[in-house]
Amino acid sequence: MLENKKIRNPFPKIGLVFKYEFMSGIKSVMPVYLAVVILSLITGIFLFEGIARLTNDIFKIIIMLITSGTGFAAFIITLIFIEKRFKKSMLEKEAYFNLSLPVTISEHIIGRMLAYFVWSVIYVVVSFISMLLIGISQWGDLFNADFWSRLVQEFNLNNIGQFFGILGTGLIYMSSIILLVVMFIFFVNTISHIVNKGRLLLELVVVIVLFIVFFNILHLCFGNVQFVDSLSAVLGIFWKLILINAIATLLGGIGTGLFLKFRMNLEA
To answer: What global pTM score does this model have?
Structure first.
């Protein structure tokens, strides 16, 4: 008689991996995000109106470069954090401990992907807050009901609900891109670690090949699109892109899991 096997509940393990990886980002990226917000607030309170009145274009450019440069630095640091954490926890010395735990490869990947996804979303939110803080002197117009009515009219929308439907589609699309970028980092780094030498070259080759394949898929799906004359057609394009991103993320996750499980050379 066959024994009934208990179905494994993966969520507690995924939650533990998520918690560990998310907490690791507090010391690495949170200070940078706070610096971006503080700089944006200072710019908005003390410098925004002054910059607008300045006739010295060079000083304006310097202030704008500092503000935008800080935000770009936060973006780069976020990507470096994701890459370094994944390498350290899954491909280098720390992996010997992590992979000996009673956690499956899939649970490791999903937990880490969710943690890095959350940090990427936090970066997007911080960027949005920073833009609001830079324009803090214009908040009176922003929170005016007439402003939203004019915005709906300018986009030729029928109602506020339609506007927020488009906004929701945009947020889902952005989330699919973030997931794709995170999984792209996972997959490229995992592939490069199947060799002991020439990893940088292999990473470059993999990146080029994946970009060519992905953009050829996009061309195949949207190459015949000449002109979009309706809102529903625009939303249809976005949902196709979301589907493509989701499929690419899923395939990247499966590929990463297979390489980690069957073909991985951990660094000594």
So the answer is: 0.82
